[in-house]
Each structure stands twice: as structure tokens, then as C-alpha cells.
């Protein structure tokens, strides 16, 4: 039977890669998007105009029976949030919007919903050992809190209705087309800008976008995924120093990494009111992603070196 998947955020960074993966495997993708003609070839688009999926009933693809919904669209983490009430704004999109998707999926006869949450639903640091799915959640910002609330609301809805809910918590996602802080790092390295990243030992998990897409496709189809929560990450974790060195080499750029002591970086963060950004560089945030490998027998198809190589190749060819 051909898989039919509804993908929210199908025009986004992860959504485009996931859509391509499903189509390459012979499946059909219906993408819920805000702008037309923004998805990869082969995606059937359904355009929504209202925020937070408020007009979902009007645009849901009722003429086709779909098996699964992969919910990627979200209000993402922002360093400088200008909303008057950030908590309320995040909750409206990430909690209430996700529940609207779940209700529409269930009413349309879908058997499963794969919800792409975030490791920030657990917290921003690992406390000395890789975070497990069973750890006590301690989110610290509106984004992470809203993602945790969405997880709990969706689990409850699934228990009430029989909709199979699968939760996936990725860390930082990188790859061709990446934006935000990771792209800024790549740009700085490519220009040979000296960076104070030469003495950071703490390791942070990441996931290559094609590895994440592979895991999501597995979660959408594998019967053993029903009701599970999975952490998804690359097989190896790097420190920021190791990451910068590998990227510089892949970019053909000089390694200009100044070994600034971590306490000095923390002090600089306090003085410049950028402590949050600094902690994301120097703090440890590793994930234990063994559960998805054990339960679903899934393995990342790409190593972190291959993922970084593809990212560097994309950057060199497009910038």
C-alpha cells in the first residue's frame, strides 16, 4: 500500500527533505503550507491563510485518505522575542495549533501523528550525562515549555481517541539550506574570521537533516513506533571546537580558532547580555538516542562527517 502523508511545514528546511524522502520511497505527500509553489516537486499543496491552523477545516484534503500526519510547523525559538506575551503566543501555535492538527487528522481517518518536538522540551543542558526520553523535563523558556505542553496534550488526545502519537525530539538540525546561528558560524569560518572557539570541550548533539528525515519516515511507517517518544541525533557528538575545525577544513578555510578560556567567555556573555548565546556554545547538551535504534532498528544513514561535508559543499556552491 502506498503511504499517503500530510506534512505540515512541507516548505521548510526539514519539510522539504522529508517530503523528498517519502516521495522517493513511493509515497504521496500533501503539504500544508502558507505560500503556494514553495515545496519540492511532487508535493500536493494545500494552502492555509489563517495563523495557527485556524482555517484547517476549510483546507484539509478531504478527498484523499491519508495514513499519517507529520507535524513540523511550529513557532520556533527566537533569541529576541517581540511578542507582548511570549508564553501565550507560543502556546497558541505550538499547543493549540498542534491539537487542531491532531483533531483534523483523526476526523479524516489518519491512524498516526508524528509530532516533531524539540530536546528543549527537556531542557537546555544535560546535567552531566546524555538526556534520555524518560528524564524529568525541565524546560526553561517559552518555546521549550510550549513543546512539552504540546507533547502532553497530544499524548492525552491520542489516549482518548486511539490516534497513534509518536513524539520525536531532535537537537540542533543542520544541513544544506540551514539558517540562523549555524549558518552564521559557517559564514564566519568561510571568511577566515578569528573566533573564540578554540578551547571548548563540552559536547553537543546535532542531527543532519537527512538523518532526521530518515527517522521521521521510519516513525511514520513502523508499527513499533506507536505511542513512543524518541531522541534522534547523529551517531557522534562533537564539541564546538571540533565542529569548527571540521567545518573549516571542509570549507577550505583557515582554522582561526582562538583558545579563549570558558570562564572568560561566560564573563563576556554577562557583560554583553548574551549569556544565553554563550551557554549554547560552551554548555554540554548530549542526547541518548539509543532507544530509536533499539525499538525501531533504525540507524542514521549518514555520519556527522558526511553531513558536515554536504553542508559545506552546499555553502560553497551557493554563497
TrEMBL record:
Source organism per UniProt: Paraburkholderia hospita
Name of the featured protein: NAD-dependent epimerase/dehydratase
InterPro entries to which the protein is assigned, alphabetical: Epimerase_deHydtase, Lipid_A_modif_metabolic_enz, NAD(P)-bd_dom_sf
NAD-dependent epimerase/dehydratase domain: residues covered: 6-232
Amino acid at each position: 500500500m502506498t503511504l499517503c502523508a500530510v506534512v505540515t511545514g512541507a516548505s521548510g528546511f526539514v519539510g522539504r527533505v522529508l517530503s523528498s524522502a517519502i516521495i522517493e520511497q513511493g509515497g504521496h505527500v500533501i503539504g500544508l503550507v502558507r505560500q503556494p509553489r514553495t515545496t519540492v516537486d511532487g508535493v500536493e499543496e494545500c494552502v492555509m491563510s489563517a495563523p495557527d491552523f485556524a482555517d484547517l477545516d476549510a483546507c484539509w484534503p478531504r478527498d484523499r485518505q491519508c495514513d499519517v500526519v507529520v507535524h513540523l510547523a511550529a513557532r520556533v525559538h527566537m533569541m529576541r522575542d517581540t511578542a507582548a506575551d511570549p508564553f501565550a503566543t507560543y502556546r497558541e501555535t505550538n499547543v493549540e495549533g498542534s491539537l487542531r492538527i491532531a483533531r483534523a487528522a483523526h476526523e479524516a481517518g489518519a491512524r498516526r501523528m508524528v509530532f516533531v518536538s524539540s530536546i528543549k522540551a527537556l531542557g537546555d543542558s544535560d546535567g552531566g550525562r546524555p538526556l534520555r526520553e524518560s528524564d524529568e523535563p525541565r524546560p526553561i523558556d517559552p518555546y521549550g515549555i510550549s513543546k512539552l505542553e504540546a507533547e502532553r496534550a497530544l499524548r492525552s488526545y491520542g489516549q482518548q481517541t486511539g490516534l497513534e502519537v509518536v513524539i520525536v525530539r531532535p537537537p540542533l538540525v543542520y544541513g544544506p539550506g540551514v539558517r540562523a546561528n549555524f549558518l552564521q558560524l559557517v559564514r564566519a569560518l568561510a571568511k577566515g574570521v578569528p573566533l573564540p572557539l578554540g578551547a571548548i570541550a563540552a559536547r553537543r548533539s546535532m542531527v543532519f537533516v537527512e538523518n532526521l528525515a530518515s527517522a521521521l519516515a521510519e516513525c511514520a511507517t513502523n508499527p513499533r513506533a506507536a505511542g513512543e517518544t524518541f531522541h534522534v541525533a547523529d551517531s557522534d557528538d562533537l564539541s564546538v571546537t571540533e565542529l569548527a575545525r571540521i567545518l573549516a577544513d571542509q570549507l577550505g578555510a583557515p582554522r582561526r580558532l582562538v583558545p579563549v578560556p570558558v570562564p572568560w567567555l561566560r564573563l563576556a556573555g554577562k557583560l554583553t547580555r548574551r549569556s544565553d548565546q554563550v551557554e549554547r556554545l560552551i554548555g554540554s547538551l548530549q542526547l541518548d538516542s539509543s532507544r530509536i535504534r533499539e525499538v525501531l532498528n533504525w540507524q542514521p544513514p549518514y555520519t556527522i562527517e558526511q553531513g558536515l561535508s554536504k553542508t559545506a559543499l552546499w555553502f560553497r556552491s551557493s554563497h
